[in-house]
Amino acid sequence: MEVNQNSLTEKRRILILGGGYAGVYTALELEKELRRSDDFSVTLISKENFFVFEPMLPEVASGSLDPRHIVNPIRHLLRRTRFCTADVQSIDLENRRVTVAHGLPRHNHYFDFDYLVLGLGSVTDTSLASGVGQYAFTLKTLADAIIIRNHVLGQLDDADLEDDPAARHALLTFVVAGGGLTGVEAVGEITSLLRDAVKFHTRIRASELRILLVEAGPRLLPEMPERLGEYAMRKLQRDAVEVFLNRSLIAAAEDHIELDSGTKIPTQTLIWTAGITTNPIVTTLPCKKDHKGRLIVNEFLEVPEFKSLWALGDNASLINPKTGKPYPPMAQFAIRQAKTTARNIVATLRGRPRKPFAFTGLGQLATVGRRSAVAQILGIQISGFAAWWLWRTIYLMKLPGLSRKLRVMVDWTRDLIFPRDIVQYRFSRAQPVTRAHFEPKEIISWPGDPADRFYIIEHGEVEVIEYDSGGGEKLLARLGPGEYFGEMAILDEQHKRSAIVRSSTPVDVIAIPREHFEVMVNKTADLKQTFQRVLEQRRQPAIRQN
């Protein structure tokens, strides 16, 4: 089924893609600027129906905060903006049209626009080391934080039952890759969770826990002054975290990781925070990009090649004239870019002069474990308990919604008085076998998507491709009726997809959930052997290329 949303309004159409800081704050500012106008319509599209306050994700991963308390329903935040929950499939700049998909079976909607705002954010770059995309956990979304928490607690439960010393050692070894803001906060929070939870496991000694932080550079927190990075390192080492500097993680497997020194560390837990890359949708656009794939914008945050296209946050590359470097992809910059973008769109609508973006930044904060943090605010450097108190105060004020502020305050107060919650949530829902239809050039799966379904093609043809850093395509395979895809990530026990699958003609597929596929393969010997042969054949070219 296809629906063209163009018929819903004849007003000037402002379309915003992304429900993060950039997208939501652009919509909020547009509502304020155009509150007395009826000659426009604003639509925001996001794959989630909530806005997540990302600075508090590590505390969700450690169980200090309830996941519900750091999210706000986008519909509560926006009163005049039309909000749609869907996945962006493609952007046609020439015809001013965006294609999105949602529902089961999946079907398309088309949104035409007069002005388009790109706030799609970034995704974790798992291409920097072999096996990371398959075996590492990321900390970018609310689901990531919940999954990490469940996994860490599950490792303790499994180790409590395990008698084999080598297996126990691997279960109780936890590795965080990346010594930037996110990595340092993650390892600090995970350490606190482990130290508190291990007290309730009678067969595990705290001395058996091994927690490692791996950083490719010469120091931690390269985004902050060196003194604060040194403080963070000393604090983590006092908490028995092993810090590896000038060491790169080059490979990950199901039961170990490997460093560039040749050291192999047995572990089943790798949390990857070592890099981000721009959203794959952005890389497909025919616009000038920087070396990280971000769109190069002018001082008004407009893409010069398309005068009705704005990009901001993680999707934009704008040089700060004072530093000569691009503005960093941080929330404080994205929020202010959103306000500038909204005002410049209104100025364009009204024929008024636009204003360039300018912001120097207020500073940065990072927690480094229980009741300790580092902060640089307006040039002043603070560390320890005072910085931790400042971190909580500032982010509590910035958290949208009074009800969320109160709930987080209650969570923090409870965390000071009562033992940490170590309940492990397990989610399981049987999903049906479904049919889905895709139109030509529609993306069926992106790299990084969960490996949750196996697809059989009934009619039509798909192409398996990958994009290079310049947006060029490399065709890996073409598949037609009777052929299938998606089995590699499932059979190889990968967590996520590793290639782009796109329809080249109208396509009808049968989608089989991962659980159903695994049962079907494991209970049918001939079928299992067939898929294993296919798996080995498809591995060979990759091995030869490497």
Average pLDDT: 89
User: Kindly, what is the distance between the CA atoms of the first and last residues, rounded to a whole number of angstroms?
Assistant: 42 Å
Category from helices, strands and their pairing = alpha/beta
Number of helices: 15
Number of strands: 34
How are the strands ordered across the major sheet?
Answer: 6-3-2-10-22
Q: Over the alpha carbons, how many angstroms does the gyration radius reach? A: 24 Å
> How can the largest sheet be summarized?
5 strands, parallel
Uncertain residue segments: 541-546
Strand % is 25-35%
Helix content: 25-40%
- Cα shape: globular
What does this protein structure show overall?
The protein is of the alpha/beta class and 546 residues long. Helix 5 (142-161) runs antiparallel to helix 6 (165-171). Helices cover 32% and strands 27% of the residues. The radius of gyration is 24 Å and the shape is globular.
Quick structural summary:
The chain is of the alpha/beta class. The protein is built from 15 helices and 34 strands.
